[in-house]
Amino acid sequence: MPGWSGTQRLTALLGRSLVKELVFTGEPLDAQRALSCGLVNRVVAREALHDAGLQLAQRIAQRAPVAVQIAKQVIDAGEGIAVASTLEALAGAFSATTEDAHEGSQAFTEKRQPHFQAR
């Protein structure tokens, strides 16, 4: 049985039926099944794992830091639709006023890569 509230978190992610099957049978998930049920975003070969992780981190690091931080907080906080909608609206209003938002728009207009400063 999963510890650390794993059954509740897995149920929210995968649904009650699949979690019951996994917990009741004790069957492990292979990579392809974990991918097909949405437990993981992608599957890569073991020898490519480090490079794939670095590439993903680099893609995220190229985004506006404040916007990424706000998006993460809104996603993590949003359990109910009303709460999530409110938080998302607030986050959007705030992130639109940052220097990074201005830099992103300016870079797009000038057809160049943005230089974000986390401000």
UniProtKB/TrEMBL annotation:
Gene Ontology BP terms: fatty acid beta-oxidation
GO molecular function: lyase activity
InterPro entries: ClpP/crotonase-like_dom_sf, Enoyl-CoA_hydra/iso, Enoyl-CoA_hydra_C
Alphabetic keyword roster: Lyase
Chain coiled-coil ranges: none
PANTHER family in UniProt: ENOYL-COA HYDRATASE, MITOCHONDRIAL, ENOYL-COA HYDRATASE-RELATED
Family: Belongs to the enoyl-CoA hydratase/isomerase family.
Name of the featured protein: Enoyl-CoA hydratase
Protein's organism: Escherichia coli
